[in-house]
UniProtKB/TrEMBL annotation:
Belongs to the spermidine/spermine synthase family. It is found in: Cell membrane. S-methyl-5'-thioadenosine binds at residues 261, 334, 368-369, 394. It comes from Streptomyces maoxianensis. It is a multi-pass membrane protein. It comes from the Bacteria. The keyword Transmembrane applies. The chain crosses the membrane at residues 25-53, 59-78, 90-114, 120-143, 155-178, 184-205, 217-236. Spermidine binds at residues 292, 314. Its EC number is 2.5.1.16. Its main location: membrane. GO terms for molecular function: spermidine synthase activity. This is Polyamine aminopropyltransferase.
């Protein structure tokens, strides 16, 4: 938050409407508020960039490194502004409130209507960093005009107020602003707090240090910024609806923010249904059967009385499992109960999953799969890992060697594990890293893939690939603890639309053609999916 503080000759004291000690505390309060707002802007850019672009580690590194660099530039530029610190600080805070407050809205608009937000992200990171970097030198000049205390004590006070403000802003963003207001409204409200704090400090505490003309200009600037932010806040709902239609099309039927993610349902009940989780296509009613048949049925060859599904809150994997009469229990471990609730209650999605959650054999556990598996569990004949793409940073722990070690503990010898491992064709390094990780955990594996995401299907984003269109295949790994199960179908398998013995053999050959040898496994300490 604080870069280098330039030194200058002691400024002349200014007449204040309060005692010098009270004025000093008011300036430190402004430092506290500005630091909190500045950190909210940073975190908001990181969160929105991770959501829109993907790969949260890379986006956080880009945003934070650019902002720290820009803060240094802003601190140097502030040298030229210290001749009129009150005026310059007032204008700077108005600009920072406008730029930081509108950053989330502009970034989302660029993604929705242009399809590219990286340039906008870089621009806002640099602009906000320059403005934040110029704050402390100007505040240092203002506090020196109030009191002639030693410079070391002043710097210590500024550092303390700045760091405590950053702490409050950093905690307020994930626990208050994001869950209660969302990214766009939260950023706009933060901008409003920012402009009020900066404007009140200058126009009241330092009003005798301003000419009548400058007081008028600062008042107009602050009122204008506040009016713009208030207008944008009023229009947030309309903006989000328009942006959502631009991203997902005109058939958005359900759009909710759960405690875990954004869930969007388009199409249905008369047309094809599409389910997006955090902007990534998870279910396409056009061809989801290709994915779920390939995911479930090869693993059901053999004992399958007790089945564990990790993820799969949409109920579609459970639908395929329940087609086997020998299934006695199905446990679905889903981190987001909002998805399960939607799968139970939405008419189109419930029809698609054939009302799987009404079956008494199905039990739902709302928990993170990694944490849930760490507790002692019973044995499962089949474990189905229907989890998000391994190339997404939050998912890497669910494709780690440690995670597969936990799964191995709940599998008897002869049990099977099937893993959705991303696209074997478009992302072979990621796919075969999952294979290497399973082997590192002691599993024998068989690779196969399924074609899908019908040609020409481009509705909505799929940020797992960084493109507007979805992958054309899904890759799977069938694994056994200490043994490699053969690919095939159970003799009692129901009639399938596309999957048969010959199709499964071709799917295995197609996956093998993409093999990359000698890849290291991925672990919690060293994730290897960010290719």
């Amino acid at each position: 938050m604080i870069d280098r503080l330039p030194t200058s000759p002691p400024p002349q004291a200014v007449r204040l409407p309060v005692r010098p000690d009270a004025g000093r505390y008011l300036v430190l309060t402004a430092v506290f508020v500005c630091a909190a707002c500045g950190l909210v802007y940073e975190l908001e850019l990181v969160a929105l960039a991770s959501y829109l672009i993907g790969d949260s580690v890379t986006q956080a590194s880009v945003v934070l490194s650019l902002m720290v660099f820009a803060m240094g530039i802003g601190s140097l530029l502030a040298k030229r502004l210290r001749c009129r610190p009150a005026v310059c600080f007032g204008l700077l805070e108005a600009a920072l409130a406008l730029v930081g407050g509108c950053s989330a809205m502009v970034l989302y608009a660029a993604f929705a209507w242009i399809g590219e937000s990286r340039v906008v992200l870089v621009g806002f990171s640099l602009a906000i960093g320059v403005l934040i970097g110029a704050e402390i030198p100007l505040l240092m000049s203002l506090i020196q005009r109030i009191s002639r205390r030693d410079a070391e004590g002043t710097v210590a006070d500024l550092f303390a107020a700045d760091y405590v403000g950053a702490l409050v802003g950093g905690l307020a963003f994930p626990f208050l602003l994001l869950p209660w207001l969302g990214e766009v409204t939260g950023a706009l409200l933060t901008g409003g707090v920012n402009v009020v704090a900066g404007g009140a400090l200058v126009l009241w505490l330092f009003r005798r240090d301003l000419t009548v003309r400058w007081r008028g200009w600062l008042l107009v600037a602050n009122v204008t910024v506040l009016a713009l932010l208030a207008t944008a806040t009023i229009l947030v709902d309309d903006f989000e609806q328009a942006a959502r239609r631009a991203v997902y099309g005109d058939e958005v039927r359900v759009a909710i923010h759960t405690d875990v993610q954004e869930v969007v349902l388009t199409g249905g009940p008369s047309g094809p249904l599409d389910l997006f989780l955090d902007g990534r296509l998870r279910v396409s009613g056009r061809d989801e059967y290709r994915y779920h048949e390939a995911l479930v049925h090869p693993a059901m060859r053999g004992p399958h009385a007790r089945v564990l599904i990790l993820g799969g809150g949409d109920g579609l994997a459970a639908r395929e499992v329940l087609r086997y009469p020998g299934v006695e229990s199905v446990t679905v471990v889903e981190v987001d109960p909002g998805v399960v609730r939607l799968a139970r209650t939405d008419p189109a999605l419930a029809v698609l999953n054939e009302y799987a959650y009404r079956d008494p054999r199905v039990r739902v556990v709302a928990a993170d799969a990694f944490s849930w598996l760490r507790e002692p569990r019973g044995a499962y004949d089949v474990v189905i890992s229907d989890l998000p793409d391994p190339g997404i940073t939050p998912s890497t722990k669910l494709y780690s060697q440690e995670f597969y070690g936990l799964i191995e503990r709940v599998m008897p010898y002869g049990g099977r594990l099937v893993v959705h491992a991303g696209s074997a064709v478009s992302r072979p390094r990621t796919f075969w890293t999952v294979d290497a990780t399973l082997r590192g955990a002691g599993f024998g594996t068989r690779a196969y893939c399924a074609t899908g995401r019908l040609s020409g299907f481009t509705t909505g984003p799929d940020r797992s690939t960084g493109t507007a269109s979805a992958p054309r295949d899904w890759g799977f790994l069938l694994a056994g603890a200490g043994w490699a199960p053969g690919l095939g179908l159970d003799p009692d398998a129901p009639r399938l639309r596309t999957l048969g013995p010959s199709a499964l053999a071709a799917a295995a050959r197609g996956a093998e053609r993409t093999r990359l040898p000698a890849l290291p496994p991925s672990t919690l300490v060293h994730p290897r999916y960010m290719d």
